């Protein structure tokens, strides 16, 4: 296959993944529409409702596999072949993919069926944003990105981002569930607040050491290799460290002060806000960051000011 064929395949796979994610979302909505009419303590789900839930999970798994094709095609379309992490479009594809992977990996362990519609809606929205506003033609990596540390640093960063995002979703649902008095509907069928709090904590406890590895170990090593300095006070480096401090405070408060529930959820959401501002905001609001991905201009054969 030619590079153009790989790029076309990647674009088509993104569209196909979006369609399958949308069908998965519809299945989950059908499931929850059926459950809405039942009391919250009624656990028996049969017929169309149970089938819709299983179909939603199956379609999410299929969408994840198509999502992989989109990422592989993107990397194979470049000359030379590379990892698909050269600009914001590719980072968004990768980050949303890892949200799906972590959800599926933890589905049975933490009984996350209730999270299905939220996760699928989030990933579908991310793909739509990527395809409509962030898409760039495939281009070679800039010199700073030509390093094996790119793979190590970015993989750990996106895995942590996926875990923090799911943990943040749990925190939002915790706050909504805590205030809700509904006996029917989606909120009524969520786990009790302590269970949501535990899932949130476990996701953050998993993501934090991975984020530490990405931000405080592999990031500085890569920076030294690329720019001869372990720390450059780059806006993205600073905000990544701010995110680390917030999540460190979250885990420290839980371990020493005994913060749980509402207070912990608020801190987790502050961390999520800094995380996503670092991921998206810096690239649009900072003109000095060496991590700003300005995309590709012209005929797509060269990248201008695409910095790592």
TrEMBL record:
It is a multi-pass membrane protein. The chain crosses the membrane at residues 12-34, 55-76, 88-105, 112-134, 146-176, 205-223, 238-257, 264-285. Signal peptide: none annotated. Residues 85-285 form the Cytochrome c assembly protein domain. InterPro entries: Cyt_c_assembly (IPR002541), Cyt_c_biogenesis_CcsA (IPR017562), Cyt_c_biogenesis_CcsA/CcmC (IPR045062). GO terms for cellular component: plasma membrane. Pfam families: Cytochrom_C_asm. It is found in: Membrane. Keywords: Cytochrome c-type biogenesis, Membrane, Transmembrane, Transmembrane helix. One of its GO terms (biological process) is cytochrome complex assembly. GO terms for molecular function: heme binding. NCBIfam families: cytochr_II_ccsB. This is C-type cytochrome biogenesis protein CcsB. It comes from Nocardioides gansuensis.
